[in-house]
């Protein structure tokens, strides 16, 4: 379907409900019926405009929207008659419960403007803020706040605080897929700027103030205190910084979006407003405007590649919650047929979308913005830059026009190159690799730890440990020789396999092995959980060894250790000689196992329950190591016996697994 031929993404019933139904009644409604002279909202009068079906007493949304239309227009005209100062005096206090008073004052300004993108943006921000605030109220009574707005506004907990009739008024506008559903229609990119009546934005501001009045009365009556949950903060921003940033890119992007068939012409104002917002350093506004349009463009691709053009025009109850990012990024369609969009987008673009939108350890930008979990004022430029840059690459790639000149432009080409080689940062596989490398760096510090001078060691009698260290090193060498053929050839020396193989360079090379993260099978994900736990335990052992070594050295030099403590300290120093290669061996095994299990699963040759049993025994060893190396325990003799058993088991299993690895590769 050509983007030029699309005039609306709202199906006829939804278009009628949003754009026409609330305008059918032409009578003028007196604002004094729902608002007192001192600014009190009369909820009883508003509730009279909500009708119910005779069959089951559920809300009759058609009749309710038709009846509330003139009420909304009356509220809109009332707000337009106020100056900003008058609005602040009369209403600002009643927005405090949302923790976003300034946002509501900002959206009031939009009501006075004729710019349609401002109304849509204001509604998206307002609804996300309102959802977060309602969740805070829910937690006055309930424990686990519902994730979906529709479940939140239908909850008994909010009905207790505000009243069921009041919540039914709210459900006409947001939260119910049978009502206007303004939040979802906008956040999923179905509505164009001109399709959202400004009077509904005004009404939601009015209702929010009314909710504030009801909440104040409830809090005074119950002596409860409303607590606002802290905002989510994007951690490790450097991991999100993939694309280069360049202001010249924005100017070229403005030309690109006008030509690209990825952009629906009815949605072009949203794209232009998003780019303008970035230029003005309004990074949250930029991303809020852009994410729904990315979804719209991808939905156009999705419906074209999967030959289901009718689903582009869907915003109906039975589809609205399904034709979104979750479905478009899935391996299969809801009819179990293979989704063709991933093949069209290709792996790097799919991994970027999963990283930024879906993976639990990723930024989950759309979810967190749309549910009000992020402080909009502090939204980081780095995240906005990545979303804008990625959007530009899609606009370039998917267009009927000849985009060669744009793709080769000196500021666009680096973006295209970055996009084409993107690798997941937040899939559990990627997080495991990161864990392994962080643990490796920690263990790499061990040789630099302060050690007791050699002449001090010779003064202690009964220190015997070189034999056991040599035994362990020999066992590790045997295991390495079994696994050597699966390691990079330039990392192995038969003269000293332990020192040459168990290096930071080897682990970096192994972690650089590309493993497809898309649609990992369940066995791989279950194995990943165990491997990540093993890596975490190894890192904890390393941190404890470092802390103990530094503390005991200081105590040794200050001569504050008792005889038994001195002997135990020297046992620790002796244990470090074998623990370092043992931990590094386990880290190497983790990555080799990761590659192995992924390949074996692809060929359906895997009894992973038996395999998990072995991995859990390694996990048990590392958990025991954490216990024994704890500075308060210092059980170094037990560590020796524990390691001996573990290496024997690893050597046996590694020998057996050679056949499995050979089949897999």
UniProtKB/TrEMBL annotation:
Listed Pfam families = DUF4209 (PF13910)
* TM regions (residue ranges): 582-601
Provide the DUF4209 domain boundaries. Answer: 130-210
Transmembrane among the record's keywords?
yes
Keywords per UniProt? Membrane, Transmembrane, Transmembrane helix
Q: Which PANTHER family match?
A: ENDOPLASMIC RETICULUM MEMBRANE-ASSOCIATED RNA DEGRADATION PROTEIN
Entry protein name: EMARD protein
Q: Which organism is it from?
A: Columbina picui (Picui ground-dove)
């Amino acid at each position: 379907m050509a983007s030029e031929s699309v005039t609306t993404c709202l199906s006829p019933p939804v278009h009628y409900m949003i754009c026409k139904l609330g305008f059918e009644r032409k009578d003028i409604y007196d604002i004094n019926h729902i608002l007192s002279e001192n600014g009190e909202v009369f909820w009883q009068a508003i509730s009279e405009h909500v009708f119910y079906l005779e069959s089951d007493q559920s809300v009759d949304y058609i009749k309710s929207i038709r009846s509330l239309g003139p009420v909304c227009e009356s509220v809109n005209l009332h707000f337009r008659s106020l100056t900003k100062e008058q609005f602040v005096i009369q209403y600002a206090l009643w927005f405090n419960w949302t923790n976003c008073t300034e946002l509501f004052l900002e959206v009031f300004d939009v009501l006075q403007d004729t710019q349609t993108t401002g109304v849509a943006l204001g509604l998206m921000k307002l609804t996300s803020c309102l959802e977060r605030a309602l969740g805070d109220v829910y937690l006055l009574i309930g424990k686990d706040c519902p994730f979906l707005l529709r479940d939140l506004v239908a909850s008994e907990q909010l009905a207790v605080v505000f009243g069921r009739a009041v919540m039914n008024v709210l459900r006409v506008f947001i939260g119910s897929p049978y009502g206007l559903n303004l939040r979802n229609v906008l956040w999923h990119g179905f509505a164009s700027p001109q399709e959202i009546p400004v009077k509904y934005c005004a009404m939601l501001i009015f209702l929010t103030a009314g909710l504030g009045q009801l909440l104040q009365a409830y809090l005074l009556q119950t002596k409860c205190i409303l607590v606002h949950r802290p905002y989510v903060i994007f951690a490790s921003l450097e991991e999100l910084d993939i694309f280069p940033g360049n202001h010249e890119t924005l100017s070229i992007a403005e030309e690109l979006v006008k030509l690209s068939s990825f952009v629906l012409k009815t949605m072009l104002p949203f794209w232009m407003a998003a780019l303008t917002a970035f230029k003005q350093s309004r990074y949250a506004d930029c991303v809020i405007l852009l994410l729904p349009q990315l979804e719209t463009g991808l939905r156009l691709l999705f419906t074209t590649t999967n030959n289901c053009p009718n689903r582009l025009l869907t915003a109906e109850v039975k589809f609205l919650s399904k034709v979104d990012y979750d479905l478009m990024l899935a391996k299969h369609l809801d009819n179990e047929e293979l989704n063709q969009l991933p093949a069209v987008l290709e792996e790097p673009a799919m991994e970027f979308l999963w990283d930024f939108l879906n993976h639990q350890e990723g930024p989950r930008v759309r979810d967190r913005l749309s549910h009000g979990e992020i402080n909009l004022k502090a939204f980081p430029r780095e995240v906005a830059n990545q979303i804008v840059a990625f959007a530009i690459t899609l606009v370039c790639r998917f267009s009927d026009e000849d985009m060669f000149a744009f793709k080769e432009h000196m500021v666009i080409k680096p973006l295209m190159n970055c996009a084409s080689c993107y690798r997941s940062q937040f899939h559990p596989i990627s997080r495991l690799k990161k864990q392994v490398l962080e643990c490796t760096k920690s263990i790499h510090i061990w040789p630099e730890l302060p050690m007791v001078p050699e002449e001090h060691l010779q003064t202690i009698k009964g220190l015997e440990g070189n034999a056991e260290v040599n035994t362990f090193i020999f066992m590790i060498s045997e295991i390495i020789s079994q696994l050597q053929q699966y390691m990079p050839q330039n990392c192995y020396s038969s003269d000293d396999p332990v020192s040459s193989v168990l290096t930071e360079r080897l682990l970096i090379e192994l972690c650089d092995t590309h493993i497809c993260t898309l649609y990992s099978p369940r066995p791989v994900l279950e194995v990943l959980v165990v491997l990540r736990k093993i890596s975490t335990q190894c890192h904890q052992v390393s941190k404890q060894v470092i802390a103990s070594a530094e503390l005991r050295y200081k105590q040794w030099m200050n001569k504050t250790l008792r005889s038994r403590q001195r002997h135990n300290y020297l046992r620790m120093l002796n244990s470090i000689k074998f623990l370092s290669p043992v931990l590094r061996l386990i880290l190497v095994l983790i990555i080799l196992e990761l590659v192995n299990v992924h390949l074996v699963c692809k060929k359906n040759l895997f009894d992973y329950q038996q395999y998990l049993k072995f991995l859990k025994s390694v996990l048990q060893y590392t958990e025991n190591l954490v216990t024994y190396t704890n500075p308060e325990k210092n059980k170094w003799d037990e560590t020796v016996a524990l390691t001996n058993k573990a290496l024997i088991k690893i050597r046996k299993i590694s020998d057996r697994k050679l056949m499995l690895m050979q089949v897999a590769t």
